[in-house]
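Regression test attached.
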Amino acid sequence: MQYALLIHLDDAPFVAATNEQRDQMTAPYMAYNEALIKAGAMVSGERLKPATTATVVKVRDDKTEVLDGPFADTKEQLAGFYIIEAPDMDAAIKWAARCPGAGHGTVEVRPVWQTR
Amino acid sequence: MTEAGAALDARAAAEAVARASYGKLVALLAARTRDVAVAEDALAEAFTAALVQWPTSGVPAKPVAWLLSVARRRGIDAMRRRRTATDSRQHLELLAEEAESRMDDDIPDERLRLIFACAHPAIDRGVRAALILQTVLGVDAATIASAFLVSPSTMAQRLVRAKARIREAGIPFRVPERAELGERLSAVLEAIYAAYSEGWGDPSGLDSRRTNLAGEAIWLGRLVSALMPDEAEAQSLVALMLFAEARRGARRDPDGNYVPLGDQDTSLWDNRMIDEAEARLMTASGLSGDEGIGRYQLEAAIQAVHAARRVIGRTDWPALATLYHALALVSASPAVAVSRAVALAAIEGPRAALGELDRIAPDRRLADYQPYWATRARLLADLGESDAARAAYDRAIGLERDPAVRRFLTGQRGAA
C-alpha cells in the first residue's frame, strides 16, 4: 500500500534561521531520505516553501477567489510530504515515527487511494 | 428422525459451531483482505446455507471447514460484486488461493491477530471493546449497543466506521513484536476490561444482556490468556474479572438492597471462581519478570485480599494499603487514591484518611466521582462532623445512578 506522510510543523524557526542553521536542520531529512530509498520505500517526497508563501484558490458561482495565506490559520502548517510504499499501517507508522518532522511537529499518516 | 428433529439438530450444530468458531472463521476470512465486513457477511451467508442444507444432508463431518469453504466462495462473489475489476484482482487471487488450501481440521487459530487489529492504536479507543465483541464472538450491534447504553444506530455506525478503517488504512492482522507488545497488549486487555465493566454495571442482574456481556468478557480474557500463556497481565485480568464475578450474587440482599463489599456474606461468593482466580494470580506472579508487576496483577491481588476474608474472617487492611500504594505508582487515578484512603481509615483512623482525601481534592475529576464523596461523607461522620458529612452524602447521592446504592447512601446520611 501507499501512504502519505504529511508533515505539519511550525516553520517560523526555519524562516528565522541562518543558512548554516538551516543546513543543520535539513541534515536529518537527508539521512531519512536515504533510509527510505535504501529500504525501497520511497515513492516521492517534497519539501514546501514556508506557509507565508501560500495562496488559496476557490471557485464559487463561477467566480475565482484568490486569497493570500495558507488553508488553515494555525501555528503548525503543512511543511512537506512523503509518499511511501509500506505493507501495512504498522510499517507506515514506523516510518512516520522515524521522520525528523515527528520530533518537533506532527506527522499525519494517510493511506493513498489506489487508482492504478 | 423426523424432519423437524433434523432441523433442530442442524440448528443446534450450527449454533455450537458458531459459538466455538465464529471468531476463528472471521479472523481467517479477513486476515489477508483486512475486510472484516465482507468476512462477516460471507460467514452469515454460510450459516444460512448450513441451516438449509444440514437438515437434509446431515451435519458434515468437518462443519467448521464446510462453513469456511462456503464463506470463502461467498466472499469471492461479494468482492466481485463490490470492487472494480482492476482493484479486486489481487484480493480475488488471495482469496482463491486461500480457498484451495487447508480444507481439513487443522484450521489455524488467527483470533489473536484479529483481536490485535481491533485494538490497534489507530482505532478509536471507545469502539475497540465493541469491535472485538462483534468480530470474535459474533455479538450483534443491537445487543452491544444496549449493553453499552448507546443507541443501536450509533453503535452500528461506529462499528461500520471502525471496520472501514481497518480495511482502508491497512491495519495489519498481526501479533505485535516483542518491543511493542506490552503497550499493544494493554490496549487489548483494556478493551476486554471495558466490556467486563459494562457488564458488571448491572448489579441487580435484571438486564441479562449486560450480565451476558460480563460472561463474554471473561470468555475473551480466557481466550487471550490461553493464546498468550506467558503474559502475566492477561492471566491477571482473568483473575481480576473472576474475583469480581464471584461476588455478583452477594452484592444485593434478598430485598434488593445494596450490600457493601465488607458486609457481604462470603458464603454467597462463588468459591470455584475464586479458586480459579487465585490459581491464575499465582501463575501470573510466576510470570511477571523484569518488566515488574503490572496494573491488572496489582488489582487482582487487591481482590485476592478481599476474597481471603472467606477464609480468615477479616480484611487485611495493611496489605490493601500497600497494594493500593503500588497501584498508584503504575496507574495514577483518583479512584486508586480514594481506595487507598479507605484502607488508611481502617488502619490509622478517619483523620488520617481525610487528610489523604484533602490532598487529592484539587483533582477536578473528583467533582463527579461518587466514591470520593461517599468516602468523604463516612469519614466526616466518623469524626462527628455531621453537617459536613450530610453535605458530602448529598453530593454522593446526587451522583449515583443505581437506586439501591442511593437508598443505602440515604440511610447512611440519616445516621450521620
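Expected vs. actual: identical. The interface with chain B takes residues 1, 3, 86-90, 92-93, 111, 114, 116 of chain A (CB under 8 Å).
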